[in-house]
What does this fold into?
Amino acid sequence: MPPKGSKKRAADTEAGAQSKSTKTDASTTAGPSTEREPIVEVAGSNDQAAEIDGPDDSGSDDADMTGEKIKNDPYTYIVNCPPRFEFEARYNKEHDDGGEDFDEEKASELWAEEHNGRKCACFNKERTDGWSMMRKAFARKMDAETIEIPHRDPDRFDMYVYNDFAGYGYQEVIENHMAEFNKVLNAKDGKTEELWTILESMGWWIVDEPNAPWHMIDDGERSWLTYSLLGFMLLTALNRMDTEGDLKTDSKYKDLSLVLALWAKAADDLGGDVVDPLASKKMDSTIGDYAGFNLLWFRYLLTLAKEANVPITGVTDVDDKIDGWNSQVEGKVTLPPKRVDRFDWKAKYQLYTKKYGKAGKIGGEAFQITKWTRQKRAKHAFDKKDPLTDDQVKALKDGMVLQMM
Ligand SMILES: [Zn+2]
It folds into this structure.
């Protein structure tokens, strides 16, 4: 499957540069200097997410939020600038008139310029073009993008392991988030808000870069099962909201429509010509031939949102297509009857775990290069030396986190 939405970055940037990690003396760059040298910071503690100071907090009530509070508070909403893909979609819609002189890279450059120059909605409350998400979702997103994913990317360490390594590393991150979802879902005191923070953050980072290696892993069957399971994860959370009376127009989940639109974009990106492996029955072939419809969860999502009167809106690419999708699906999809596990998450998750998990568990840390021994890293490094410095190795041992922008 070709990597969709993987347009080359026009300018490398410090995406999410608003993160305020506690820099230590060990702060340094990883590996020998290269063209695209990563910026690596050793963040203050294992509670790295807690260090994230998100968008401009000055003067707000949560200025005194401590790490532990943030960890346990999936309720406060904060505003960020829209992700690069959304900024590009808006810009291109406005400026691309089909003329030959349209600069495809321009929007990406502008996004970086605004964000790195702190001119965007992350830092300026008067900007009205931002997106909101729960504070904890933002922390999850930052962890995924600056720690979990880059720590599994050999390029970032000047290493080579094997061709699909970064893709399978990304898969491991995805699985860790699904496992976390499953854990919260089944925990006695697992909060629906907590489930929501997982979906808010994932919806954002799975459609954003750097997801390209993930789309190219050589196990298509596993990819499809994953694409399908991810959507059923969303449906499962929505069903729980529904049973709690929160799947509605004026839901207490303020970003409900936006997150649904993000996941609709995910369906748009992930859909293909393969029949959903988690569809138990043959799917209605009279529904249009749009690729995303091959994911059963996407048909369900459109139908569920329609029934609940929740608009799927806020993502430019989706806003342009949603009416068309809805009209194709309308009246043709029957949702499973209402019950606790309405979308059979348990069975579906088990099926995946049985097939790809180890000892009943999915995900893990096998691909996390920073957790390897120095010898193992050195073996795969281009120059046969551990890309991490002595200080970095010591900092990691002391429980610090390498944050890679
Ligand atoms: Zn920003």
About this structure: Residues 1-40, 44-63 have pLDDT under 50 and may be disordered. Residues 80-81, 115, 120, 122 surround zinc ion (CB under 6 Å). The chain has two domains: 40-72+131-404, 84-130.
